């Protein structure tokens, strides 16, 4: 067993229980929110508590929340929510970009105008070992991204900083990828070059693909396939997502898959009504209410489901 830091304090990895490996509480631009939106903080917190308590009532014990710099991470708000739910929330450090890094790092770093050791590694390590800002909450894993734009200089810099930090601290990693560009393989290459352990890496959004050869190549290198966008049927229909998981289970890959929705209590990327109309199943209930029954109907056993929802998330930290 290992100790896993959560929003409400450290727990044993064996106590994570049934876990969704990629969910968000809030995704929002704080600067945009403060200047251009009407915002009822207490109501948003109450809505999040309701949603997470509902998820706990469906038998889910833990969510991993990879909301990092670039996605609006604000831990004091998450602490207020965590205090009102029995659902365990595990938070991350890292940086989310598809292109450039923020201007706060644009001129500062190795070989730049202000030539100093990589500040991203320093910040990520502090979040993991000392805590995020002055909240006392320690991140438990790292997050980076690579999208259709590929390995831009900014993306590569972040990814290498994440790999270095993981190698130095032992913290696991989740990577946002675009499987249609096979970018999970690029992420594996870069992270491995920096000494990261690929068995402690979730290649996120692998469930958007039906390319079994690509998915098995990722898994054969040791990483976990994030089948983590259930409900986003506009990106890949429900039946295709189910068929892919069923086939990979049949081929012996249950121990290298993890499930989630990539849903959120609130996200400011879309109008809420338009979002509900376009992706009505993109919510925290979908796996419990729809995905697991469909997998069982297709012959996936309870033991294999437990492997994906309990054993794999636990092993991520062990």
TrEMBL record:
Binds 2 divalent metal cations per subunit. The modification N6-carboxylysine is found at residue 143. It holds the Pfam family PTE. Coiled coil: none annotated. Its cofactor is a divalent metal cation. Transmembrane segments: none annotated. Keywords: Hydrolase, Metal-binding. Signal peptide: none annotated. Zn(2+) 1 binds at residues 22, 24, 143, 262. The keyword Metal-binding applies. It comes from the Bacteria. The keyword RNA-binding does not apply. GO terms for molecular function: hydrolase activity, acting on ester bonds; zinc ion binding. Zn(2+) 2 binds at residues 143, 176, 205. InterPro entries: AryldialkylPase_Zn-BS, Metal_Hydrolase, Phosphotriesterase. Belongs to the metallo-dependent hydrolases superfamily. Phosphotriesterase family. This is Phosphotriesterase.
């Amino acid at each position: 067993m290992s100790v896993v830091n959560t929003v409400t304090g450290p727990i044993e990895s064996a106590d994570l229980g049934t876990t969704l490996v990629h969910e968000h509480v809030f995704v929002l631009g704080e600067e945009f929110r403060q200047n251009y939106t009407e915002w009822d903080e207490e109501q948003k917190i109450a809505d999040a508590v309701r949603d997470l308590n509902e998820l706990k009532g469906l038998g889910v014990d833990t969510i991993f929340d990879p909301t990092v710099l670039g996605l609006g991470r604000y831990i004091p708000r998450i602490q207020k929510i965590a205090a009102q739910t029995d659902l365990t929330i595990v938070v991350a450090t890292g940086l989310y970009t598809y292109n450039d890094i923020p201007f706060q790092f644009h001129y500062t770093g190795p070989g730049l105008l202000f030539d100093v050791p990589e500040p991203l590694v320093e910040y990520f390590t502090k979040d993991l070992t000392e805590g995020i800002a002055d909240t006392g909450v320690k991140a438990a894993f790292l997050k980076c991204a690579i999208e259709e734009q590929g390995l831009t200089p900014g993306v590569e810099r972040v990814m290498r900083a994440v790999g270095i930090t993981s190698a130095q601290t032992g913290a696991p990693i989740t990577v946002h990828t675009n499987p249609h560009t096979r970018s999970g393989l690029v992420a594996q290459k870069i992270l491995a070059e920096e000494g990261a352990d690929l068995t402690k890496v979730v290649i996120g959004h692998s469930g958007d693909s039906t390319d079994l050869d690509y998915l098995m190549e990722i898994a054969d290198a040791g990483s976990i396939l994030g089948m983590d966008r259930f409900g986003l049927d506009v990106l890949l229909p429900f039946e295709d997502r189910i068929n892919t998981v069923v086939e990979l289970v049949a081929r012996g890959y249950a121990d290298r898959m993890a499930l989630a929705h990539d849903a959120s209590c609130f996200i400011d990327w879309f109008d809420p009504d338009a979002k509900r109309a376009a992706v009505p199943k993109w919510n925290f209930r979908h796996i419990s209410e729809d995905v697991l029954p469909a997998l069982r109907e297709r012959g996936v056993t309870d033991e294999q489901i437990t492997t994906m929802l309990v054993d794999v998330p636990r092993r991520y930290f062990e």
